[in-house]
Amino acid sequence: MTEFRSYIKSSILRVILILGLALIISFFIKDAQQSRSILGAAIIAAGIAGAWHIYDINSWPLKKRIGLHTLVMFLVVVLAYLVGGWIKTWTDVWIGLAAFVGNGIVLCSLGYFFFKDK
């Protein structure tokens, strides 16, 4: 875990910067739904920026890093869906879950193939 300590400050600063800019932008938007959507997208961007360094903890096995990153991103995406107002019915829940799983499989597979030799 000492490997990760050097990344904590920069990760927190990125998250605060992204969310702060989104709050400022959404404050000036008159349309409430568009403002909520900007905040939802910013939550996802901040989650990615904050959880990026999980993969830099080289002392952990890759499965552990993938599992933790997936859990963090799942929580971030659910929060973003709720804040963004993108979930209105149970169908939206299933579509959102399928999109999360599908994107996760594709992006994790691409990352694996590009970085497996490193």
Automatic annotation (TrEMBL):
This protein's UniProt keywords: Membrane, Transmembrane, Transmembrane helix
Keyword Lyase: no
One Pfam family linked to the record: DUF3021
Xref: InterPro entries: DUF3021 (IPR021560)
Transmembrane segments: 12-29, 35-54, 66-87, 93-115
Source domain of life: Bacteria
Claim: Membrane is one of the keywords in the record: yes
Protein name (record): DUF2231 domain-containing protein
